[in-house]
Amino acid sequence: MIIPRTIRRLQDRRTHKSGPWANLFESYDGDEVVSLDCETTSLEVGQAEILSIGAVRIQGKKVKTSDRLDIRLKPPASLSGESIKVHKIRASDLVDGIELEDALEQLLNFIGNRPILGYYVNYDIRVIDKFLRPLYGFGLPNKAIELSHVYHDIIKWKHVGGDVDLRFDTIASKLDIPIIQRHTALGDAITVALMYVRLKHGQSPSHTH
């Protein structure tokens, strides 16, 4: 049986509320959001292994690019020619990569209990949870914010009718945001952060059918 994430999160909170990571399960009352992106070997959660993790903090209208996480992991055995076509990351790009366990510890410390923002963010969370749960006994408990949903809701509210193009490049173009190092974890995380700030605090995008 598949346990819904909300129920699993409550179970995790009960189990870990007195443990070393108890702070992750506390309600967040600050004003920061973390934009997160992972580059993986596959688009299927069950097969995916993590190659790199990028994250940047957002505070109000500011994307804090100096306050960021840029991690490369050791190349997994599953790093194949086919997967390289997707993410353009070769084994030689990961020679200085760190162990997965070290990467996950850095990630948990960086995110804390802040909300996590991303483009198809549930995929990234599910891949991270796949490796996090066997090591720590819990998955990421953070609130998730999906950029394409934020964009869609604003577009639909401003412009009724018609389908909304939710492709990454289209959203960036509509918001007049430059795409930074596409298909790198940190570049995508920063680009998503900039789009989110524009949506929340800037002029809403125009939309033509």
Automatic annotation (TrEMBL):
Exonuclease domain location: 32-205
InterPro entries, alphabetized: Ribonucl_H, RNaseH-like_sf, RNaseH_sf
PANTHER family xref list: BLR4117 PROTEIN (PTHR30231:SF7), DNA POLYMERASE III SUBUNIT EPSILON (PTHR30231)
UniProt keyword list: Exonuclease, Hydrolase, Nuclease
Domain of life where this protein originates: Bacteria
CDD domains on file: DEDDh (cd06127)
Protein name: 3'-5' exonuclease
Molecular function as annotated in GO: exonuclease activity
Pfam families recorded: RNase_T
Signal peptide: none
SUPFAM superfamilies per record: Ribonuclease H-like
